[in-house]
Write a structure and sequence with these properties.
FAD/NAD(P)-binding domain; 7-stranded mixed beta sheet; alpha/beta; Enolase-like, domain 1; 22 strands; 3 domains; globular; 5-stranded parallel beta sheet; 26% strand
Length: 468
């Protein structure tokens, strides 16, 4: 294998492999160093893709139990075949792995399996599985090593009883009870999977509400829906300790409002209290790459670290830990290295919670806009007034659009309801072009479609919404 490259990417997750592909398209000779046998990083192997596979399967199972009857479809003797469900998930992951390998081959990218360590600017040492070490030379290095789940001191992962998101994707049976520590996106999504499959799920959240950074109205709709489906929420609650009691895990907790204390027992505890940058063994300290107090690699406006020629993207730097954010940063670095004007518009990074109903958002919330002293108009329209949503039997939720009062430019949008992850895109595009609520309001939307709710919300900004 040749050992001289234009760019070496460490990490093959969405940011790494997408950045590598763009660099190769721009004529660079690229290698990707990956410590695991499978490409795709956390997102593809133990994150976004397998979790969505299980969410889809669990929704189908739940619909067979609770939703099909209303459509006149009678199903008897419904049984869960968990091994088949898991095999389907594993096949989706494997197919995605193969897809990345195909793209590497198509774009003449050299894959190198082993633990990468930066020796200096321009040199990456790779320790192979057999213990051998190879040193690769390069003009530039891109760090794209992602993040790992945060472990609590008194809740160490064994991935059987006390599980991270990784373990929660591979349980061999449905627990009778599951305790979810942390009411963020990961906890709600994976909690939803096991709740639909039959577990009694309790979510314990330190803050006074779940998903505290997202639009409050949207999250209220989501919490009501999840509660109706049987999920229990304990907010303003701090977990203070744990112990094994027989086959169960007992958690000690304290209510932060009245200081009352108590215990809860669960067959499985899912710890979803956040993620931290993964830079273990990377050599950052040895070569002088600066980090902030949260352990994130510090970069300039062009993603270059404190060491010239070494760049970093994705979860290891500041910003939301989202695959699509990492992808755009990877592309930006590749284009900057090629002398182009690579950039990322962080005002249009979308966020999605793939529960039922889904929650999707982009830009500022009402609270954030008001905190910045902005004068805004807000348009809101419910799915209950949409013909397609009624036909689907999915009427919970709404679309909310926030626009600048003077210019009508869209500052943010928040959606909760059926398939909002798919229809958010048109608002993202509109915002990317500096569009206004009037632009959306005057654009055709097919009838009947869910996307009409976006148009009605845009009309509602000027109090022009119509009943459908």
């Amino acid at each position: 294998m040749e050992t001289q490259f234009d760019l070496i990417v460490i990490g093959s997750g969405p940011g790494g492999y997408i950045g590598a592909i763009r660099a190769a398209q721009l004529g660079m000779k690229v290698a990707v160093v990956e410590k695991d046998k499978n490409y795709g990083g956390t997102c593809l192997n133990v994150g976004c893709i397998p979790s969505k596979a299980l969410l889809e399967s669990s929704e189908q199972f739940h619909a067979a139990h609770a939703g099909l009857k209303a459509h006149g479809v009678k199903v008897s003797k419904i049984e869960l075949d968990l091994p088949t469900m898991m095999s389907r998930k594993d096949k989706i992951v494997k197919d995605s792995n193969n897809g990345v390998q195909f793209l590497f081959k198509k774009n003449k990218i050299t894959p190198v399996t082993g633990l990468g360590r930066i020796v200096k600017a321009g040199a990456v040492e790779v320790k192979k599985e057999d213990g051998s070490v190879e040193t690769l030379s390069t003009k530039f290095i891109m760090i794209a090593t992602g993040s790992v789940p945060t472990e609590l001191p008194f809740l160490k992962f064994d991935e059987k009883k006390i599980v991270s998101s990784t373990g929660a994707l591979a349980l061999s049976n449905v627990p009778e009870t599951m305790l979810v520590v942390g009411g963020g996106v990961i906890g709600l999504e994976l909690g939803s999977v096991w709740q639909r499959l039959g577990a009694k799920v309790t979510v314990i959240e330190y803050a006074d509400r779940i998903c505290g950074m997202m639009d409050a109205d949207s999250i209220n709709v989501l919490q009501r829906s999840l509660t109706k489906d049987g999920m229990t929420f304990m907010t303003s609650t701090k977990v203070t300790g744990s112990k094994l009691v027989g086959e169960a895990v007992e958690l000690e907790f304290e209510n932060l409002k009245d200081n009352t204390k108590g215990t809860l027992r669960g067959d499985v505890v899912l710890v979803s209290t956040g993620r931290r940058p993964f830079t273990t063994g990377l050599g950052c300290e040895e070569v002088g790459i600066a980090k902030d107090q949260q352990g994130r690699i510090q970069v300039d406006n062009h993603y270059q670290t404190s060491v010239a020629g070494i760049f970093a993207i994705g979860d290891v730097i500041a910003g939301p830990m989202l695959a699509h954010k990492a992808e755009e940063e990877g592309v930006a670095v590749a284009e900057l290295l090629a002398g182009q004007a690579g950039h990322v518009n962080y005002n249009t990074v979308p966020s999605v919670i793939y529960t039922h109903p889904e929650v999707a958002s982009v830009g500022l919330t009402e609270e954030q806009a008001k905190a910045q002293g902005l004068e805004i108009n807000v348009g809101k329209f419910p799915f209950s007034a949409n013909g397609r949503a009624r036909a689907m039997g999915s009427v919970d939720g709404f679309v909310k659009i926030i626009a600048d009062r003077k210019t009508d430019r869209i500052l943010g949008a928040h959606l909760v309801g059926p398939y909002v992850s798919e229809i958010l895109g048109e608002i993202v595009v509109c915002m990317e072009f500096g569009g206004s609520s009037e632009d959306l309001a005057r654009s055709f939307h097919g009838h009947p479609t869910l996307s009409e709710v976006i148009r009605e919300a845009a009309l509602a900004v000027e109090k022009r919404q119509r009943q459908m």
